[in-house]
Each structure stands twice: as structure tokens, then as C-alpha cells.
Amino acid sequence: DKGAKLVDLTEHKLDKALVQKSDGTTLYLTRDIGAAIERYEKYNFDKIIYVVSSQQDHHLKQLFKTVELLGLPYADRFEHINYGLVNGMSTRKGTVVFLDDMLHESKEKMHDVMRANEAKYNDVANPEHIADVLGMSAIVIQDMAARRIKNYTFDWGRILNFEGDTGPYLQYAHARLCSLERKAHVKVNPDADVSLLTEEVTCDIINQISLYPDILAASIKSLEPCTVVQYILKLSHSISSAWETIKVRGEADDVAEARLLMYWSARTVIGNALTLLGLEPVEAM
User: Fold this and answer.
1) Inter-residue contact 78 to 51 (CB < 8 Å)
2) What pLDDT digit, counting tens, does each position of 138-147 carry?
């Protein structure tokens, strides 16, 4: 078309894709095609995943279809993982919050919250590091709590809260379980008599723990981190509801061992899930 080069994708309902302007200039699509070929030649990948916002859905569909029409034998190995936008941020309006600033601000806010309880603060071995981890957890869990395609509004007040479905809440749940284990008068015994765990809340917690492999399988299949996040949030809430009635300290050794094993298992699952989400589980805060 007037010296420009197009790929006609109209029969695939993808319009006409411009790959070279009339002056010979290439475009994003052209370079993405070249990059796809180069990456295969270099890495011989089994699968290539493009993690790009939903604003580029059409572009990625054009890319994948063009690669397919080129007859490349690895055309079926491409996948687009899209995600929504963070509302309230705009480069044009100057309201963007950059990641470095977010991490710094969240760390400082977490540090302020920790300092408010001087007694606990003095017991934390490395408060600067813990504040950093908590701040990062706040941002990551906020971003991964819902399906990735959903837009959300960034809200400092909500994400830095130690209560509710937040990163700090999950870290607190993990740290509290670590503390229980340290202070228990019995040790974790993998051969504890779990038949002693007859309460409704303990049965519910055990059932939730048993679902972890299935949760991971579902998350891998859907490529949705929120599956893992919502699971450990639910598990943490169940643990919280058991604190006052399902005690370890002061109980007979056999009962204490059974309950501690349940709490240890929950802590292991929560810690493992946080690690999978790219976060460091904290043991004290």
C-alpha cells in the first residue's frame, strides 16, 4: 500500500497489520516478529510467555497470528499473559507513582507502624529489613489479590493495613505461628496423634491445608497468582479464628503436640506460598 508493507489479517478479524512504512521504517510488530525468531534460535524454548498489559491484546494477537502464517514450527508455543491497570495513575496528569518510590514509601510507613509498639519493636532483630519486607508484601499482595485482568485503585491506607486481606496481615499470620512454635512447651512431632483434633475449626484448617497441592495445580493451569493469594488469606483467617479456643500452651502434651503439628503445617504452607509469590516470610515483627 503506497510502498508500505502490510499483513492482511482481516479474515482472522485482526485488521491489517503494518510491518513496514513507505520510507522503510519498521514498527513494533516487525521488531517483535524478529525478536520471536531470534529468541527461538537462541533459547530453543518450549514456551514463550509475554507478560504485557491488556492494552496490547490486539497487538499480541496480530503477532501470534503473523508468526503462525509465516509457518514457523514453534508458532503454537506463544502465550500472552495480560493484566489490568492501576487506576488513579496517569503519566499525562503527573499522577504516576514509580515503583522505587512505592517501595521506599511502603517501607517507611511499615517502619512507622512497627515503631508505634516500642516493646515489640525492640524485640525485632532487624527492624529495617522487616519493614522493607512488609512494605514489599503490601504492594505485591495488593497487586495479586484479584484476577490479573481486573483494574484496581491504588490505596495506601488499605494495602498497609495489618487487618483484612493485605500483605502485612499475611506476614503477621506467619510470624505469629512462628512465635507459637518458639514458645510451645512441646516440639513439633510428625507422629503426633492427630485423631485428637476433633474440633470443627481444626477439621476445617486441616482440610484447607490438604488442598494446597490442588491450589498450586490450579494456579499453574490458569497462571493466576490470585488463586494462591486468596487461598492463604482464607487459611490465615481460619487460623486467626482458632487462636482463642485451640491453644497449645497449658494443654496436655499429646493434645499440645497434635495442635502444634497442625499450626506448624499451616505455617509451612503459608511460608511456602509467600515464597512462591516472591516474598520472604518473616518470623518475627
Assistant:
1) no
2) 989 988 988 8
